[in-house]
Amino acid sequence: MDTTVADSPDSGSGSADPPADGSVTASRDGALLRLTLIRPDRRNALSPPMTEALIGALTEAASDNALRAIHIQGFGDDFCAGSDWVATNSGDQRPRTGDLVRRIPHAAHRVIELLHTVQLPVVSSVRGWAVGLGCNLALAADFTVAATDAVFWEPFLARGFSPDSGASWLLPRLVGLARAKRMLLLGEQVSGASAQDWGLIHQAVEPAEVNTATEELLERLVGGPTVAIGLTKQGLHYAQHSTLPQAMTQELFNLELSCRTADFKEGLAAFTQRRPPGFTGR
Known about the structure:
Blueprint: E1 23-29, E2 32-38, H1 48-62, E3 69-74, H2 85-88, H3 99-103, H4 108-117, E4 122-126, E5 129-131, H5 133-140, E6 143-147, E7 151-153, H6 167-175, H7 177-184, E8 190-191, H8 192-198, E9 203-205, H9 210-222, H10 226-239, H11 244-258, H12 262-273
Parallel strand pairs: 2-3, 3-4, 4-6, 5-7, 6-9
Antiparallel strand pairs: 1-2, 7-8
Helix pairs in contact: 1-4, 4-5, 5-6, 6-7, 10-11
């Protein structure tokens, strides 16, 4: 099974034959990095090597000065059905006690942490099922565009174990404690349309419009002031666990950095000249 990150054409629409089944492919589209989860026979559930490949791609992207946005999608009809527990526990020997505590921080949890901290805007486009880790991948993205009939589901308790991959942190902040309990304690499935109404995702559109809506959003983000976007993302996350004075102090440091960029000078010039800015991400 091919599980390395490799160059690949965009394949989120399901219109082309997939590359190697069980892979995470990366394609550069100018300043945009597209990551595609490819395992359609398992609804793009992530095997351990696929998770490692995703971590590698996001880690590399975090320090790539040529990138200005990241797009994550699933191949074919679904986004991601979570971690593949069958593949993880398919060995003949029972894992040692504490295996999950040792392993998951460097696997599923690391993926969510990277999406949360990378100073690039991340967009996910969701069709079909977004389940467990797959649901949390979509929620950890900065913007998620979903089909109205997509399904967001946190089935941890239905499988007899408690949530992981940031579900207990992400959900209350996005939709409030009451709705978080509905999704986590009752296992309630949420459609793309309801997810937009709840504030769980950025936008829900008809299935045929997912690509168009996603590309419009990506074009806007890729053309933005990349450094300022990254610092604003960092500031928003920091403010979720800080006091108002602490948040404003962090804003000052971020402001000092963003005002030293070429995009800041371009923004001022464009304002003075009454024209749209031409940001370069520098």
